[in-house]
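Narrative of activities, Objective 1.

The group set out to show that a structural description can be obtained from nothing but a protein's sequence at a throughput compatible with the screening campaign. Below is one input-output pair from the validation batch, recorded exactly as produced.
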Amino acid sequence: MRWFRLLHGIEDCAEREEDSECWEAAEQYFDAFFAELTNAPFDAPPGHIAELIDSMTAGYAVERTAQEVAEEWLTQHEPPSAPSRMLTRRAELARLLIAGIWAARVTTSYFELSAMQETLREVMPLSTGGSVLARQPHPGLRALVPELPMGNMMALQWTPSRKGSGGSLDVLWLRDVGRWLLYHLHDMLACEGVEGPHVLLTSATSYEPYSMRYHIDIVPSLILREPPECADALRASSLLFRPRRRPGHERGVYVSGAGGRQARQNAVRTMTDAVCTPDPGATMSLLEQALQSADEDRRRALFVVLSTQDAGTSAHYMNTRTTVTACHVVPDSRPPGPYGLAHRRIAEFPSTHATVMVAAEGPVGRGHNMLNARGVAAIYPIFYLTRLHPPPDDLSFPLAVLNSQAMARLLDPVRCDVPGTNPALEVRALIRRAHATWGGMMGRPLTFRTLPTEDLRRAFVADQFHSFYQTTGRGIRGNVPVRVYLLDAAFAPRAADPRDSALDTERTSVLIAGRALMRELLAEPGPGADAQARVKHAIHTAVWGLLANLLENIDWG
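Output recorded for this entry:
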């Protein structure tokens, strides 16, 4: 359908009233030419497309390539309402047509194979190791977890090989609402007359209504607050934006967004050098300055990157090209190597000889404390070598968005017995919204500045600062302050460029966007607010007050 709409001049997923005729024409075009093919892609193809299918699937050399046949088909069947700008892109549209037909075949094969799997297992021992079926949920869980109310979502992801040839085609099938068990474990056996199991859920940061990935939509029953003296110590923490510059990087060093694998690793080395080596004319590096201001037993630093490879590159550079000793966190399944520290041993970092630990944000963000002999955080400065941002091909965010939308509908279902309710319209609206989100996010790289809607941008920022908050927590254990340095120019591109007089906005800087989000979250409910709004405001203040304080008082240098 995306291809049909594109052919009719609709180049985005937003439904606008003025485009209604084009949408209807695209659907009629689909029904006339491709409905039969997509419903049964392995049946004998309709006559008008038979030559294209034959050229695509022939096991021998054909007179004309599939690309040539597809372009000719478009010439013969172009819709009357197709804009002229689309017709100039005939070669591109032909490639998309071929890809769409292959996608229909792959997804149909996958659905059929998945449906047959359990039946085959009953007849013969069928191993799923190494196949696409091996990563499906256990059948016992699928019986308990409801399917998405908007129906199954499927996508194909092509991942090029790092060696430069070939790659892997991965099938992504979102079919169940994974959080259902978290919300209903306590009453799952009620139909059997069994109480429980009783659940006690504790979390310091899982009540964030703007977050799609981390928010648990259950109002807390109890909040544990810190003593006033501890709150004062935590509020002494500071957040500093210090874009690093080196020759050739007058606008600041960018690690996030560095194009290509080799360019990114070079940027990581440049950033590491900029932190560990004194600037021209300076006597101490930025790292030395930060450690000098720390208590004697807290002179350890954490460097935060976004991948295990980046962590290894940074640690290797420090140990071989500077006077700084460093280790980097590696997954437990990998050999640590000369400078590696296994993930399960993160808590042992203070007892190592290293001054710096480099880690991807995920492994270090929660579950591990690095304490000194006093029982407080051994690390004082935290350096973010790269901006908060997942890789462009990361799929966790769109999956979280769809899961959150599905869970919201299950928690607040439409009452069909209410007068005036039209269940069919409600279902269509739910499906249309889900397909628009899925199509808009899965078909393009994930980048902060190009997210299409305000709610998605807000959810993206909320997710990223949730991780940031967890990582910052490694430096406040024992109620001591932490100092966090943001070094990547991508955090605030305009502020990092001395030649740019314009101010960063919520669309250019995740820092400004995060600050705006915290202001909205912690806004006073007003004198007319009800008790529920006041309770939620108290919860938000308790949970997110420290992060809001950091963002409101950023030291821009």
